[in-house]
Amino acid sequence: MTRYLLDTNIVSAYFRAAPDDPLVTKIAAHSGELAIASVVWHELRYGWRLLAESRRKAALGEFLESVVRPNFPILEYDAGAADWHAHQRALLRDQGVVPPFVDGQIAAVAGARDLTVVTENMRHFKVFASIRLERWPILGSGA
Fold first, then answer.
1. Residue 119: predicted pLDDT
2. Are 112 and 87 in contact (CB under 8 A)?
3. Is 141 inside a domain boundary?
4. Domain span at residue 47?
5. What pLDDT is recorded for position 140?
6. Distances (CA, A) of 19 to 10, 23, 25, 73, 122
7. What CATH number is given to the structural domain containing 83?
8. DSSP characters over 23-79
9. Is residue 104 helix, strand or coil?
């Protein structure tokens, strides 16, 4: 059962993680409970496409196709998420807060499905009072 929605920065850190990284341990402990939003998949694939041809690009492409795609279901930004997002954006606008749109989409996928967002970027997500957030340890992040 999916419980956690991983932000792009978590998946990116997982790619760079050494086997002894606390993030690797945390992801392994929650195997089967993790997913990503379709907009996170977009950010990952877009970033990969921007890289110059190199061993790093080849390794990242392999990671995305052999680790991320088969192990983390890709949840759509669907009508329920769009409704949640529209409601939250209107509430935040009334408060003078304008979060990044893509972070709102990620929050909406989580909010519409009652998932916890896992991110290193708490600042962009904490404005959405109705979602749960967790910051998982990443080696060298001070977490």
1. 95
2. no
3. no
4. 4-134
5. 59
6. 15, 9, 8, 23, 25
7. 3.40.50.1010
8. HHHHHHHTTTSEEEEHHHHHHHHHHHHHSPSSHHHHHHHHHIIIIIHHHS-EE---H
9. helix
Closest by CA position to 39, among listed 80, 84, 6, 67: 6
* The pLDDT of residue 142: 47
pLDDT value of residue 34: 98
Q: What strands, in cross-sheet order, belong to the sheet with 4-6?
A: 74-75, 34-37, 4-6, 116-118, 132-134
Strand-strand pairing, 132-134 and 74-75: unpaired
Domain count, the chain: 1
> Which sign, positive or negative, has the C-alpha torsion 69, 110, 85, 102?
negative
Which pLDDT score is estimated for 66? 98
Query: Is residue 20 assigned to a domain?
Result: yes
Structure tokens at 114: 């009652």
Report pLDDT for 139.
66
pLDDT at 141: 55
With a cut of 50, list the residues of the chain below it in pLDDT.
142-143
Contact between 115 and 4 under an 8 Å Cβ cutoff? The reply is yes
Residue 118 bridge partners (DSSP): 6, 134
